[in-house]
Amino acid sequence: MNKLFVFFCFILFLPFCFSLKAIPFVSFPGEKVLLEFDSKVSVEMSYYYNLNEVKECSKSNCPLFENNSLKDSGKKTFVLNTMNVKPGFYAVKVFEDDSNEFYFTSVVVRPDYRILIGLAIFVLIVLGFFVVKRNV
Predict the structure, then answer these.
(1) What span, in angstroms and rounded, lies between the C-alpha atoms of 12 and 1?
(2) CA dist., res. 127 & res. 130, Å (int)
(3) pLDDT in tens, 16-27
(4) Which of 8, 92, 112, 127 is the most buried (most CB within 10 A)?
């Protein structure tokens, strides 16, 4: 019985364990995303898009860099704050410092259902224990 309880607790808290580790270019709302490049570059938030809409970035609808703006330059690592943004895709324009060429990359902000899934598993476990106790 104790091993079963520990297993279910492990399953219940598994999403919270992996939430502490941010994968580059993919984030949940509220996490800080670290963008790393091989050379010094300049970056600019360009567009927000999902299945329904495409919008140009503004300070109100896109993640911001450490300097609280949509642009940052001259570094190899950049930190994006995704505190109050909608889930979806964000296009980031990357400029090489030694040339005029640029390319796009994207940051994905996924909806955060971890707490809801954990709560549903907990309710199912409690209901399972109730049914087992009642049938005994």
Answers:
(1) 17
(2) 5
(3) 443 323 334 566
(4) 92
Percentage with pLDDT > 70 across the chain: 79
Q: Which two tokens stand for residue 73?
A: 């330059």
For residue 2, CA distances in Å to 6, 8, 27, 41, 135 come to 6, 10, 35, 54, 20
Alpha-carbon dihedral 64, 67, 70, 73, rounded to 10 degrees: -130
- Between the alpha carbon of residue 111 and those of residues 28, 29, 116, 130, the distances in Å are 6, 7, 11, 32
- For the chain, the maximum distance between any two Cα atoms, rounded to a whole number of angstroms, is 74
pLDDT tens string 124-135? 999 999 888 887
Is the separation of the CB atoms in 82 and 33 below 8 Å? Answer: yes
Give dist(CA 41, CA 94) in Å, integer. Answer: 7
